[in-house]
Design a protein that fits this description.
Length: 238
């Protein structure tokens, strides 16, 4: 580890592309920067893309604070088919008609049921396919306890059955596969999540995010945001 890497302190947003795991991204950045003192504020599944905020050095202690900040998502769902993991990684578990569902009916269900503080049951682990091949599978599929989440708003961006797209503004984490699965049941059909993009987390969006070609010591050092005493995060003057 270089002396400069030892002195890195702050948080910085990155763009995670789809097709790779959050853990592999974190491993690569740790290798590039020569330090293990890096943590993220919320993983994204392999099929997901978008903003991840990382803390480095002593700033890793602020990562739990960032996890509770506002988030915005663009998610895509598919009507008519449910899976056992609630997303496209699982196996089909149910096929149901969907042509009776209108955009107005979906909007009404979303606004009446999902806006505000709600309880969600987390989906089956994203490592489902690995667990399926391991002896741990039966022991890991234990009952999942409901979690409280807060959704400020949820809007339909696109409605072209069986496909649809939603924009979600939440406080902290929201279990989007569960939301899509439950929405399908509420509409007397079935549904699963096919794509997710985390558009922003806190004040960080695509404009601030570092891409894979920026994951080097110099660029990260020049784009660190420093925790203040609030402990909100403010960009230091350059």
């Amino acid at each position: 580890m270089s002396a400069a890497a030892r002195n890195l302190y702050g948080v910085f947003p990155i763009y995670k592309p789809s097709g790779c795991s959050s853990s592999s991204i974190l491993k690569k950045i740790k290798s590039n920067l020569g330090t293990d003192k890096i943590a993220h504020s919320g993983a994204l599944n392999s099929y997901s893309e978008g903003i991840m905020v990382l803390g480095i050095g002593k700033a890793v202690k602020y990562v739990p604070v960032i996890r509770g900040h506002n988030r915005m998502y663009l998610i895509r769902g598919m009507l008519g088919v449910a899976t056992n993991t609630y997303d496209a990684c699982g196996d089909y578990s149910r096929v149901s008609p969907y042509k009776h569902i209108s955009e107005d009916a979906m909007r009404e269900a979303l606004n009446e049921i999902y806006v505000g503080k709600i309880e969600q049951i987390p989906p089956i682990l994203p490592s489902y396919r690995f667990l399926q091949r391991s002896k741990l599978f039966e022991t890991r599929l234990v009952p999942r306890e409901p979690c409280q989440v807060t959704i400020n708003s949820i809007d339909i961006v696109e409605f072209e059955p069986p496909s649809f797209q939603l924009h979600i503004h939440s406080v902290g984490r929201v279990y989007t596969p569960t939301l899509i699965n439950d929405l399908g049941e509420i509409l007397d059909s079935a549904a699963h999540l096919t794509h997710l993009c985390r558009v922003s987390q806190g004040d960080f969006g695509f404009r601030e995010a570092l891409h894979h070609y920026d994951w080097n010591e110099e660029t990260v050092q020049n784009n660190l945001y420093l925790p203040s005493n609030d402990p909100e995060l403010n960009k230091p003057s350059q």
